[in-house]
Amino acid sequence: TLEQAQKNNQLLLQLQLTTRISQLFEQKQDLANAIIYAEQALELTQQFATESGQADAIIHLAQLKREARDTNLALALLLNASGVYKHSTRPQDLARLHLEIGKTYQQLHRYNEAQTYLTAAYELFQRERLPYYERLSLLSLAELYTQQDNPTQAIVLLEQMLNTPIPEQKNLETEMYRLLSIAYENNQQFDQALLNYKLFTNSQHESATTEEPPQSDFFANYTRLDQSQRLQELDNEKRRLDRELSWYFKVGISAALLMT
After folding, report:
1. Which of 56, 181, 208, 236 gives the lowest tally of CB atoms within 10 Å of its CB?
2. Is pLDDT at 201 greater than 50 in this prediction?
3. DSSP character string of 155-200
4. CA-CA-CA-CA torsion for 103, 105, 111, 117, nearest 10 degrees?
5. 206-219 pLDDT per residue, tens
6. Nearest residue to 20 (alpha-carbon basis) of 188, 215, 248
């Protein structure tokens, strides 16, 4: 358990557990507790983790802050980290930070800064030959163009992505169709807007009825349990936090950890 890991000064295990618990609270829309554990995870990474591990923790906490509408603090976290990672030996970490900074500026309606960082992220991902993450950057740029009343540019970008698919593109198609629907509507092309809206709803339905594919190791530096195990672990951890620890809880967590 997390308490045992803290007593035994097992930093890596503490990091794995706090990160996992934060993610699970996020899934349950409990942002307050998700942020508490994300902050603990970030503190732990500063003691021993690699630059990539620290980037993971910073990005996760900033995403939670942004989701909680604490956007200025999210931006401060990311900008501070960006200065540190300018000389990183892993440019993809800097690219990830640029992507999140761009999305945060976008939420603040500071569109010029958002475009600068999103473009920088795209160029870095392209240089590192990471096409999936190139597409993530382009999706954010397309959304930015729709917000800037530039639907034509958004349409060109999105249609190019659809016409030049990559193996992992299926994971992005729902968002592509959503943005295309909005862009075509803003461009007064209502037939195309309706067509893409139907494609969006179909893709959304397919995603809901099929098992979610595993995340890329690029964004997952720590071992993760499968969904059912993770939900069970959260329930167990909440019992511990409520001082209702039982023998079955201990056995359940031990078994889950042995499977990682």
Report:
1. 208
2. yes
3. HHHHHHHHHS--TTGGGTHHHHHHHHHHHHHHTT-HHHHHHHHHHH
4. -70
5. 877 765 444 433 33
6. 215
